[in-house]
Design brief:
Elements lengths: L8 E5 L12 H13 L4 E3 L12 H15 L13 H14 L4 E3 L9 H12 L5 E5 L1 H4 L5 H9 L5 E4 L6 H8 L4 E4 L5 H6 L4 E4 L6 H12 L3 H15 L7 H11 L16 H16 L4
Parallel strand pairs: 1-2, 1-7, 3-4, 4-5, 5-6, 6-7
Helix pairs in contact: 1-2, 2-3, 3-4, 6-7, 9-10, 10-12, 11-12
Protein name: Dihydrodipicolinate synthase family protein
InterPro entries: Aldolase_TIM (IPR013785), DapA-like (IPR002220)
Family: Belongs to the DapA family.
Length: 296
């Protein structure tokens, strides 16, 4: 098994630029991927929740991956391949490989509260596509919890190489390291970045670098390199924004921050609706404060 691990470092779960008519703006997306890499990020994760994959057509979803690969190269692109059925997720993993990607990210079954046997079968099926799989544990949204013992079993059976951990329980980092020391832990929620970096995370599947890539990359590297005085200062400065990554309105919030720093965030597709006035005011104030502090 190759030791190449393209999921290490700062991989941005990319927001997807939409036009006013809610069609996908692929040219803007290509430019956005290149801009992120040019500003200190290591790669992108298209077709995650932040990329609104659930409301894309199959044709759009495939083209998003192809656009990212054309912009920055397949080595830097780790698409999300979540779907209701294991066969569909495997097809998306195969499409990623055909497009030139070298790894994929996979949620557990999320159409229902799957039991352990179903989870194991799901990851085994998608692993047959031949690409390394990074599991995505998001028990808040999927209601399926990839607890450390289950992650260790998935890794031991060769189905996964890493995990994006979004439970918010930073204590799990140490248990995962005990049970599966070769399983790469990736920071999955922006607002526990420092805690998981100190606990040994090897990467960050990140949201807010969509708007603030340089400051976010600086924060990540300071944290994983043990430069804690620098990391703590940046973390305090950015945390009023980072915590939006763990809220229901994370897509709208990050897109608004993108707009405010001169990028193109733009609208979201239904059923997502615009932020409430008080939410917009909070995101706007936090973004403007971060910009004034030099984060943009």
């Amino acid at each position: 098994m190759t030791d190449h691990r393209p999921w290490r470092g700062v991989l941005v779960a990319t927001a997807l630029p939409l036009n006013d008519d809610l069609s996908v703006n692929y040219d803007r997306y290509a430019e956005h991927c290149a801009w992120l890499v040019g500003n200190g990020c290591d790669g992108v994760v298209p077709n995650g929740s932040l990329g609104e994959y659930q409301v894309l057509t199959p044709e759009e979803r495939a083209r998003v991956v192809e656009t990212a690969v054309a912009a920055i190269g397949g080595r830097r692109v780790m698409p999300g391949v979540a779907a209701y059925g294991s066969a569909e997720s495997r097809r998306w993993a195969e499409q990623a490989g055909e497009a030139g990607c070298e790894a994929v990210m996979l949620l557990p079954p999320n159409a229902y509260r799957a039991d352990e046997r179903s989870v194991l079968a799901h990851y085994a099926e998608v692993a047959k596509a031949g690409l390394p799989v990074v599991a995505y544990n998001n028990p808040i949204d999927t209601k399926v919890d990839l607890v450390p013992e289950l992650l260790a079993r998935l890794h031991g059976e060769g189905h996964i190489r890493g995990v994006k951990e979004f439970s918010g329980d930073v204590r799990r980092a140490y248990r995962i390291a005990e049970l599966a020391p070769e399983l790469d832990l990736l920071i999955g929620a922006d607002d526990v970045l420092l805690e998981l970096a100190v606990a040994g995370a090897k990467g960050w599947v990140a949201g807010y670098p969509n708007a603030l890539p340089q400051a976010s990359a600086e924060l990540y590297h300071a944290a994983v390199d043990g430069e804690l005085d620098t990391a703590r200062g940046l973390y305090r400065q950015l945390h009023p924004l980072l915590r939006w990554d763990s809220r229901v309105e994370f897509v709208q919030a990050i897109k608004l921050s993108m707009d405010l720093v001169g990028r193109h965030g733009g609208p979201c597709r239904p059923p997502r609706v615009p932020l409430l006035p008080e939410q917009e005011a909070a995101v706007r104030a936090a973004t403007e404060k971060a910009v004034a502090a030099g984060s943009a």
